[in-house]
Amino acid sequence: MLTCPKFLTSTEYVPRLQARMVREDELIADAEHRGWEREAERHRCTQQRIAALLKDLSLGTE
What we know:
The chain is mainly α. The chain has two helices and no strands.
């Protein structure tokens, strides 16, 4: 899971992480449409973690 303290990634996974960001957007929109605010928040947290990973990878801190 993305929140595991031992989770590691590398620049080769950037496209997968970017695709996951898009999917999280879709899941947030769906959850909001259904009125599932807690589910939408969970996906926002996942997006924040992915954004942090992408930022770290762009700085070369794999």
